[in-house]
């Protein structure tokens, strides 16, 4: 093997180069979970150093963060690390687009870390031809049409960019943004391992990944638990059970075993959480997130693990039961199941904390019927909690509500059905925020990631209640050939209709156009074909679309008995509109609020408890 060099390189230096990827490893296959972990790790580390009022120059006193090694040849071929470098490129593109919106803030020039340009063409950091159109579109507009896209890598790039849009914390989008960017490019480093040849690079890769593998926290936890059992026969039975469940958990996702154990231990046993200030000490919640095997060993008495029989029960009963429930929850989050619909709704909005909250309410001796009710009740509560916050422009990002979620977890831990229902309803009713916030709800950068979900819920609700075989999952599926998009009822044309009479400026018109009551969902191709059309023509086209869109047209109220029955039973103020001006939009917003009150009715928790 020829000479090998290794040294730490920050992102500013690392991405100020162009890299190639061998044809046999060109697929970009990171999933949402990996992007979530990357953003969470980076933003949490940044928050360790950042203080209100800090400026870019203060970054020189911040600590560094290590993102692991990458393996390159001396001619810049990537042998290991393209997933991270591709993801960092997506993050920089997103941050650059965020800077374009925040015009009042200092701008950090990171264009050269994203692409170089020659003869009018952009070449991106990782030079793979099939990706260039997508990356260029994301860089220029923050969007890309994947309707006819054939490349799985390009589709993944687009979806992971949208994940970053959804996940990136709102609190870093204001004055901390330029400080975060400076810290990211100067203080976040990777170890760059370089070799003279591709063959040598592969040898390094094999050595790093195949030799001297350390046990994972899951394996160390299993070893400890089994070592505390006296009976060999029972120990072997517990070992077989553990291995079987771990296989099932890993089939769900790569680190499904560790994710389950963290959620389970936090749900059932964590009593403390780290304070949100610099240099604060890690507590139960935080330690379980990193070294749960050590935490269990040090807290065995608190967990009731005092004898061999306790350890046997812990695996043979508790581990089995909670793992099976977690596997069910993951299945419900991926495939819509009407009986457990709220789990799917919460997952669609990226709320991964729901698993911890749901598991906390379930006692190890609950019957299957009780377990089922608790899953439904708690997931319904979470759906309402998320919706109320969003309608009032409050984030549900991990970093912002981790304390709230931790307190909810402890509050409902191991409660029986009746008490659980009372606690969940009381919590919603005592929130400072309410669904009245819908009066001022509109489409903006924050609500964009949730608006399609909300409009799809409303569409699905109206159709289902009117006897139409509707499918919510189809409305929010972004990976189908012709996905649904948000439709503005008003065209983006200030000169149409009465807009110039009703609004003193075009800017005022554009703001009003984004209000909740002026929005629908339509398939992307229909949305594009109608976008410049005036309302009198649009409303005719709406009559062949989903029921929420059809309610604008008079034909919806003729020969439609099931819809009319639904309208009469609920007293929802539906009405058709021959014209749709400012007053009509305000009226439609009031209708939307009443629909939302039906969908997110706190009394549904009682209905589920008594079902």
TrEMBL record:
Occurrences of domain GmrSD restriction endonucleases C-terminal (ranges): 450-589
Protein name listed in UniProt: DUF262 domain-containing protein
Pfam family, one: GmrSD_N
Highest rank taxon of the organism: Bacteria
Limits of the GmrSD restriction endonucleases N-terminal domain: 13-225
